[in-house]
């Protein structure tokens, strides 16, 4: 059985992000995955860096907090990591950035001669308010995609990583199709 960690970063359970996450969960299950749903807001994840979870560059085997070690176990158990998030200010929501900062830590996600996360697959699925054309005009989607794919996933040993955007998710912006269908296609194409 294949395991997927589905990470969701939105405070409202009735949001488009939550709807995309639920459809992603169903699609993953239909494709034979056991799905571990990690709702960062629902689980009250604290994105603030603590002294207990601050990297110790002299100790790659540092024992981080119990909360962080639990999240590390969930990542370890996953063959596939799918992150569903709204693109806010052309970047990650603070709770998701804090999850990366605290959990994808030195000695766990990076800092070893053999990458611990090597062999995993990862899909970043961002819901962007503006149109594809608006993002492309300024190259903002390319910047964010490179940061996520290269600066996080590849840096941590995940070579099979992709970033897909669902554009036009704000009602005032023109959508190429329905955002839910676009998200279904993005995940389906990746699987």
UniProtKB/TrEMBL annotation:
> Per the record's keyword annotation, is Oxidoreductase included, yes or no?
yes
SUPFAM superfamilies from the xrefs? Flavoproteins (SSF52218)
Protein known as: Flavodoxin-like fold domain-containing protein
What keywords are annotated for this sequence in UniProt?
Answer: Oxidoreductase
Give residue ranges for domain Flavodoxin-like fold.
2-175
Question: Entry's Pfam families?
Answer: Flavodoxin_2
UniProt record similarity statement: Belongs to the NAD(P)H dehydrogenase (quinone) family.
Which species expresses this protein natively?
Actinomadura fulvescens
What domain of life does the native source organism fall in? Bacteria
């Amino acid at each position: 059985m294949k395991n997927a960690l589905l990470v969701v970063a939105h405070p409202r359970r009735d949001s488009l992000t939550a709807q995309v996450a639920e459809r992603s969960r169903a699609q993953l299950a239909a494709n034979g995955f056991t799905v571990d749903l990690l709702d960062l807001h629902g689980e009250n994840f604290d994105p603030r860096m603590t002294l207990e979870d601050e990297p110790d560059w002299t100790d790659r085997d540092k024992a981080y907090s119990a909360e962080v070690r639990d999240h590390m176990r969930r990542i370890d158990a996953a063959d596939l990591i799918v992150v569903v998030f709204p693109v806010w200010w052309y970047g990650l929501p603070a709770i998701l950035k804090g999850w990366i900062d605290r959990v994808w830590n030195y000695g766990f996600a990076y800092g070893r001669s053999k990458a611990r996360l090597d062999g995993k697959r990862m899909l970043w699925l961002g819901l962007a308010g503006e149109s594809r054309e608006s993002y492309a005009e300024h190259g903002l989607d390319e910047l964010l995609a490179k940061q996520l794919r290269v600066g996080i996933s590849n840096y941590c040993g995940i070579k099979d990583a992709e970033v897909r955007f669902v554009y036009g998710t704000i009602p005032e912006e023109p959508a190429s199709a329905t955002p839910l269908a676009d998200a279904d296609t993005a995940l389906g194409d990746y699987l």
